[in-house]
Amino acid sequence: MSYDPLHAPGVVPAPSSLDIELWLARSFLAEVATANIHSITDMIEAAAGLDYRLRALVAALDAERGGQR
Q1: Rounded distance, CA 4 to CA 34, Å?
Q2: CA distance 23 to 1
Q3: Residue 2 domain-assigned?
């Protein structure tokens, strides 16, 4: 079976400040909370968006800690 991954392995989004990334993550969580669980499109968009927001939030945390992983 063939598939396309959400992102290339090892690709980390360039984060904004931790405060902005936290605000963006909270905003996106509120947005997808009302997604239709019976809609494949809504669920794929939510999964992809949450993946990106979580990776950006972790990158912002790493940057604030001086690049620690």
Answers
A1: 26
A2: 38
A3: no
Asked if residue 13 lies in contact with residue 27, where contact means CB atoms within 8 angstroms, the answer is no
> Residue 43 and residue 55: Cα distance in Å, rounded?
18
Tokens of 6: 């959400």
Q: What is the pLDDT of residues 23-68, one digit of tens each?
A: 999 999 999 999 999 999 999 999 999 999 999 999 999 999 887 5
Question: Burial level of 54, CB count in 10 A (0-12/13-18/19+)?
Answer: middle
The range of the structural domain enclosing residue 48 comes to 18-64
Q: Whose CA is closest to 21, among 57, 50, 66?
A: 57
